[in-house]
Specification:
Elements lengths: L2 H30 L3 E2 L1 H5 L9 E7 L5 E2 L5 E7 L4 E7 H4 L11 E8 L5 E8 L8 H17 L1
Parallel strand pairs: 1-2, 5-7
Antiparallel strand pairs: 2-4, 2-6, 3-4, 4-5, 6-7
Amino acid sequence: MKSRNKKLLAIGLAVVGLAIVAALVLNAFRNNLVFFFTPTQVANGEAPKDRAFRIGGLVVAGTIKRSADGMNATFVVTDTAKTMPVIYSVKDNGPLPDLFKEGKGMVAEGKLGANGVFAATQVLAKHDENYMPPEAASAIAQAQKAQTLVK
């Protein structure tokens, strides 16, 4: 084999190797990407049916209920336009954060069940009195703006 052909073969193999590595990295990134949706977006069918995603907003006052055995907690999250029921398994995922309270901002990660209930695997609560996750604050502002336009 001529030296020119060897160089071309080496370059070709390097390009193919880089393409394979790039495809594997992009596939891993796509599989681990978790998008944020509001209850309104979920109600409109914009959320994925078979993948995990995040939902956020405010916990509706009076909706936090714990099962008799303390292994499950249910609550309702809202973006002030729509609401979404959420169930969280304390047994499988650990206790809810101490700062998780009614009327406060939160973000939950999980999947939407066939029954329309969001099954959360992780719940993130606000940090302090003035903090709300940026996604939740933006979603609430957009929902309030949309309600104002409808009225």
